[in-house]
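Progress report, Aim 2. The chain analyzed during this reporting quarter is listed below.
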Amino acid sequence: MTAHNASHKVLALPGLALRARRRYHTAMRFFRKLFSEYREAFSLFSKNSRLFLLGNVLLGIGSNLVQLLLNLYLKKLQYDEAAIGTILSIRAFGSFLIALPASFLVARMDSRKLLPSMAILTAIAYAGQGMLNGFGLIAASVFLAGAFTSLYQVAAGPFFMKNSSPKERIHLFSINGALSMGTGVIGSLAGGLLKDIVFAASGDEVYAYKAALVLGACFVGASVAPFLAIRDEGNATAPGMAKRQPLGRIDVGLYAKLLIPGFFTGMGAGLTIPYLNLYFKNEFLLGDSVIGVIFALGQVSTFLGMAAGPAIARRTGKRRAIFISQAISVPFILVLTYLRWLPLVIVAFLIRQTLMNMSSPINDNFTLEKVPPSQQHLMNALKMLNWTGSWMVSAKLSGSIIATRGFAPSFTLTAALYALSTALFWLFFLRPKKTAVHG
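Predicted C-alpha cells for the chain:
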C-alpha cells in the first residue's frame, strides 16, 4: 500500500464515522418523535379502547401460544402435513362460515355482551384442542375456535371507529395490531419453553403439548375481565356512528377494489404461514424452544414495524405505505424458499414478516374510511370472509403439496400471489389517472 493510499484511508475514516453519527441521530430523532406521537395519542384513547387493548393482550398471548404449538402437537400425534392442512383449513372454514352473520351480530349486539361471550367460548374451544383426543374432536374444537375468534376480529374495527376520533384513530389501529404481535413474543416464548419444561419433568411429550395448549386457553379466558369492564358506547366520539343505521347503497366497484387484493394475499398466506414452524422443524431440525424464540423475534420486529406504521403513512400516505411495504417483502419469501443457510433464512423471515404485517393496521383503517359508517361492520366481515375463504382453500392444498413435494412449490406460489396482490393494489389505488388533452 502506498503512503498516498494509506493517508486517503485514514482521512476517510472520520467521514464514515461522521455519517454513522448522523444516521444514528436521525434514527433517534425519528424514534423520539414516534414515542411522543404515541404518548399524545394514548392520552386521547377512550377508556373503552384501553380496556379493549388490555383484553387483546391477554387474548393474543393465548392465541399465539396455541398457534405456535398446535400443528407441532399434531405432528407428534403422527398426523402428516396433509392431515394438518385439513385441520388448519377447518379452522379457516369456521371463520369463513361465521364472518358474514357476525357482521350483523356485531351491528346489533352490545360489545359489553359480545366480547366477554366470545372470549369464554374461544377459551373453551382452545382447551378442547389440548384436552380432547382423536382427529374428529380436535378438528371440531379448531372449527369452533375459528368461528368464535371471527366475532372478535369482525367487532374490532367498528369498535375502534365508534370509540375514537380521527386524530388518534390510526395510532389506535396500529397499536392494536402491534400489541397482537407483541403478545406473540410472550405466547411464542411461553409456549415453547413451557412445553419443553413439562416434557423434561414428565418425560411425556404429548402430555407436555396438552398442558401448554390448556395454558393458552387460560390466557384467553382471562380476557373476559377487561371486556366486562367496557361501558356503554352511547357517548362514542366518532361522528355519524349511531347504532343500527340503514345499510345504504353499496358501491360494488369500490368493494371489489378493496377486497380483491386481500383475496390473493390470503391465498398466498394460507400456502405458507401455517407451516412456517414445521418448515423450521423439518428443514433445519430445530427444537420447539428455538422455534419459539425465532417466532418471538418475528413478533418483536413486527411490533416495531406496526408501531412505526403511522409515521410512515403520514410521510408517504396510507396507500403508498401499504404498497411499498408489501412490494419489498416479496423477495424475502424466495430467500426462505431457495437458501439453506439458517442465519440468512432467519433474517429473511424477520424482514418478510415485519414488512408484510406492518401495513395491516393501516390497510384496515384505510378500508373502513373508504365506506360509510353504516357499512363498516359489513366491510370488516367481508374482509374476514375474503381472507379466511382464500386461506381455507390454500391451506388445504398446500398441506398436500408440502407432504409430497416439500416447501419450495408452496413458498414460490406465495411470492407470486403476494406480487399479484401488490400489483392490483397499485392498479386500483395508486395508478396515475389519465387526464384528457384538449386541442
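The chain has 16 helices and no strands. Residues 328 and 354 are 11 Å apart (CA to CA). These observations will guide the mutagenesis work planned for the next reporting period.
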